[in-house]
Amino acid sequence: MSLQNRTQRIAADQKMITGIQEHLGSLTAITVAGQSMAPADIVKVYQARVASGQAVIAADTAKLGASQADVSEVKQTAAFASAFRKMVQAMYANNPTILADFGLKPPAVSKPTAATKVAAVAKRKATRAARHTMGPKQKAAIHGTAPESAPAAGSTSSTPANGAGSTPANGTATTAATKS
């Protein structure tokens, strides 16, 4: 007989019971594997096999239902459990003993490698150059100077260099160019 699954084995055992009852029930004893047994005793062996298989199927079905209920419950409460775990870790981050009581470990602090630090410095420097940003010391070192070039010919200034212009009390300015 080839390897069968449990349901097929149960069906075959039930057919065996039916066949024994129909065709061998009139016999008083049958010798099987060196044992003399009544047909009713052989039926009891097969009935025990069927009952055992059906119990396993029922247990598997119950396990499957319980497993599906468990997965559903975990999915529904996953966000809450994650938030609570993070809250407890934040509350007791400096106390690993209390975190251990909750079954948690302190958050791991990763130290950057030397290569990561060098890359970060280079990236920071490139970003500052691209944005033309400066720190307070660089800003303090910059001093503006007025251009020393002469004004263009024909342009008038509100305060002429020779002081000829004045601002009277009424707010109108007179210059040498406007007096002529």
What's the pLDDT, averaged over the residues? 83
**Global morphology:** rod-shaped
The succession of helices and strands, N to C, reads HEEHHHHH
User: Stretches where pLDDT falls below 50 for ≥5 residues?
Assistant: 176-180
The number of helical runs is 6
Largest sheet: 2 strands, antiparallel
What structural class do helix, strand and pairing data support? mainly alpha
Q: β content, as a range?
A: under 5%
Estimated radius of gyration: 49 Å
- The count of DSSP E runs of length 2 or more, i.e. the number of strands, is 2
For the termini, the CA-CA separation is 130 Å
Strand order of the largest sheet: 1-2
Q: Into which percent range does the helicity of residues fall?
A: 55-70%
Q: What does this 3D model show about the protein?
A:
The protein is mainly alpha-helical and 180 residues long. The protein has a domain at 6-101. It has helices spanning 6-24, 39-91, 96-101, 114-131, 136-141, 176-179; strands spanning 30-32, 35-37. It has a two-stranded antiparallel sheet. A hairpin with a 2-residue loop joins strand 1 and strand 2. Helix 1 packs antiparallel against helix 2 (39-91). The radius of gyration is 49 Å and the shape is rod-shaped.
Short description:
By secondary structure, the chain is mainly alpha-helical. The protein has helices at residues 6-24, 39-91, 96-101, 114-131, 136-141, 176-179, and strands at residues 30-32, 35-37.
